[in-house]
TrEMBL record:
Protein name (record): Catalase
The protein's required cofactors: heme
Record flagged with keyword Metal-binding: yes
E.C. number(s) listed in UniProt: 1.11.1.6
UniProt enzyme class: oxidoreductase
Active-site feature positions: 62, 135
GO cellular component, one term: cytosol
Catalase core domain span: 15-400
Protein's GO biological process: hydrogen peroxide catabolic process; response to oxidative stress
Organism in which the protein naturally occurs: Tieghemostelium lacteum (Slime mold)
Length: 672
């Protein structure tokens, strides 16, 4: 009994698992303040190794995912920038597999929670697999991988209750980020509409870290990678997210699958920002910072199209293994301390999750080019090696294979001079200037959503001192107006009257999603509501015209029974109003029809909900009295028509603007 009791006696000191006291649990061991992380850092390796193996077989983070096959087409020859083969020729196509994911929740969680989204692309190039392992936000919560386990432990479900699932609205998350002010920039992104995308095809993707491009002459340039969706970037509203989580937890997954099956292929443009480290006041190795596009031009490299769904979810989407360390010649790492830790962590995790070192032989992970080395055996080995010698050099195999390649991957020969240290560079110390830039770059409606998001999240926090710290130590230092608006909603007194000094940065219009709309209605989902007496001519007109513009229409009725039209024909609906509520659609059309539908409670709710979620609605003038009874006033997105063709253009223009935000103050719910 005494022996068991000794495991319950905890010292206040942090130690390794073997009892060695830890002097610094925040910074990894590096060669100089800004140098590379060192392999001898047994403290970081033990901490991350234990973290990597906490869950089997589900991913620890990014467990809830969706995948698709496709291809990347290069725009031109970029060999002046990089010797990467897949960027070497105009029109060159490279197969890809993409996995989108949420971060916090397990596999069974909902798609539409407020969260960061993973955006990972596996390029099957002629020179091996290249894994782009990024997110839909350009920055991260922490600067050093040493604290990645701490961050994930904080954002995950609280260990005593195993709740909440797939959400950051709880004490441990806000406790951590309010104590780690370097997280302030990422928290602003998380509380913005970027954290609740309307669909996967409407997300941007970012490599987060600064990388190197190296050409055949050995010349290097620093760069950041960005994916831009050709469908534009836009989001749900919070009330809609919550309802979708209950009514269709697979909403984003299903929408991606359906679009591909329908031949409406999602597309993104891959581009880079070439960075001169002297052009920015921030350290380009700091993963909590971005480079505004207005200061550093976006250079398009090519286009990715997703055109095939997986044949088997487990074999492909679940078993696909992404590692930032999977590079091809022409792309190289930097000394970003968060990236350096990821290079170890991802590989270590795959070994545990997929049962050994041969995970690369699973079909979805296998390169399409020939591969050969002297690695042998291990669990789940599939390759049959006929060579007698499994070492290098050898004189037994024909030509001594495998041999080194003169054109193989080489690390950029960066000159270094440093001392071993666990310090963090002073150039990483500015935690609020870019947070303020993000806030100032938002439109008034986006700012209001951020305030409501902070209010919702912090209202779930049980410990008052954490709420007060978020307001006084985080938000006050970002922006006083933001802090006052949130503090008023929470009944918290602002006691910090001396915000930290920040660099005054210009607004970046590229950060506001209202500037990132596609300008068209391609891929938009439209519900056309039917009942007996409906005008078949108008149903056909709306369906055909919307489809011409790239939208996807569904005919929806109170039941699945055939609907009798005003011309005594019948129309078979695709689904029902209860089975396909308005939250599944981007807009609603109600053609001319009989009066019976106006007394239907489900129909009333359908229109009210679409209105409250700021969606464009087009109705026949026979519904004018119906709208008056519901106290809904026409606006530029709630359009009443007399002639089907007369106001159709106004409706599609409203659809292209995504949401009718001017309506938000009139709605019957408070969006967060």
């Amino acid at each position: 009994m005494k022996q068991l009791d000794c495991f319950r006696l905890y010292d206040k000191r942090t130690t390794t698992n073997t009892g060695t006291p830890v002097a610094d649990d925040v910074n990894s061991l590096k060669g100089g303040d800004r140098g590379p992380s060192l392999l001898e850092d047994f403290i970081m390796r033990e901490k991350i190794t234990h973290f990597d193996h906490e869950r089997i077989p589900e991913r620890i983070v990014h467990a809830r995912g969706s995948g698709a096959h496709g291809y990347f087409e290069c725009y031109q020859n970029f060999s002046d920038l990089t010797k990467a083969n897949f960027l070497s020729e105009q029109g060159k196509t490279t197969p890809v597999f993409v996995r989108f994911s949420t971060v916090q929740g397990p596999r069974g969680s909902a798609d539409t929670v407020r969260d960061v989204r993973g955006f990972a692309v596996k390029f099957y190039t002629d020179e091996g697999n290249y894994d782009f392992v990024g997110n839909n936000m350009p920055v991260f919560f922490i600067q050093d991988a040493m604290q990645f386990p701490d961050f994930v432990h904080a954002v995950k479900m609280e260990p005593d209750r195993e709740i909440p699932t797939g959400a950051s609205a709880h004490d441990t998350f806000w406790d951590f980020v309010s104590l780690k002010t370097e997280a302030s920039h990422m928290v602003m992104w998380l509380m913005s509409d970027r954290a609740i995308p309307i669909s996967l095809r409407h997300m941007q993707g970012f490599g987060v870290h600064t990388f190197r491009l190296i050409n055949a002459q050995g010349q290097q340039k620093f760069c950041k990678f960005i994916w831009k969706p050709l469908s534009g970037a836009c989001s749900l509203v919070w009330d809609e997210c919550q309802k979708l989580a209950g009514k269709d937890a697979d909403y984003n997954r299903g929408r991606l699958w359906e679009d591909i099956e329908n031949g409406d292929y999602p597309q993104w443009e891959l581009g880079i920002q070439l960075i001169d480290s002297t052009d920015t006041p921030f350290d380009i190795l700091d993963a909590t910072k971005l480079i505004p596009e207005e200061k550093c031009q976006f250079i398009p490299l090519g286009r990715m199209t997703l055109n095939r769904n997986p044949d088997n979810f487990f074999s492909e989407t679940e078993q696909v293994a992404f590692c930032p360390s999977h590079l091809v010649p022409g792309i190289d790492f930097t000394d970003d301390p968060l990236l350096q830790g990821r290079l170890f962590s991802y590989l270590d995790t795959q070994i545990s999750r997929l049962g050994g070192p041969n995970f690369n032989e699973i079909p979805i992970n296998r390169p399409i080019c020939p591969f050969m080395n002297n690695q042998r055996d291990g669990i789940h080995r599939q390759t049959i090696n006929p060579n007698k010698a499994s070492y290098f050099p050898n004189s037994i195999n024909p030509d001594g294979v495998p041999v080194e390649s003169p054109h193989g991957f080489t690390t950029f020969p960066e000159h270094m001079k440093w001392s071993k240290t666990r310090h963090r560079s002073e150039s990483f110390n500015d935690h609020f200037s870019q947070s303020a830039m993000f806030w100032n770059s938002m439109s008034p409606i986006e700012k209001e959503h951020i305030v409501k998001a902070f209010t919702f999240e912090l209202s779930k926090v049980k410990r008052r001192h954490i709420q007060e710290r978020v307001v006084n130590q985080l938000l006050v230092n970002v922006d006083l107006d933001l802090a006052h608006r949130v503090s008023k909603n929470l009944g918290i007194e602002i006691t910090n009257r001396n915000p930290v000094h920040k660099i005054e940065l210009a607004k970046s219009p590229a950060l506001s999603q209202l500037n990132l709309l596609s300008g068209d209605i391609k891929s938009r989902k439209v519900a056309i509501l039917l009942s007996d007496g409906v005008s078949k001519q108008e149903v056909d007109y709306f369906s055909q015209e919307l489809c011409k513009l790239g939208a996807c229409c569904k005919l929806i009725a109170p039941t699945l029974s055939p609907v009798k039209t005003s011309s005594n024909e019948t129309i078979t609906p695709d689904t029902t109003m209860i089975g396909s509520p308005s939250i599944l659609f981007d807009a609603v059309v109600v053609p001319r029809q009989g009066d019976n539908i106006q007394s239907n409670g489900v129909f009333k709710h359908y229109i009210l909900e679409a209105y409250n979620h700021l969606k464009p609605i087009l109705l026949s003038d026979c519904f004018r009295v119906f709208l008056e009874k519901l106290e809904l006033s026409p606006d530029h997105g709630l359009i009443i028509y007399k002639n089907a063709t007369h106001d159709f253009k106004s409706f599609t223009t409203a659809m292209a603007s995504h949401r009718i935000y001017s309506r938000e103050s009139k709605t019957l719910y408070i969006p967060a």
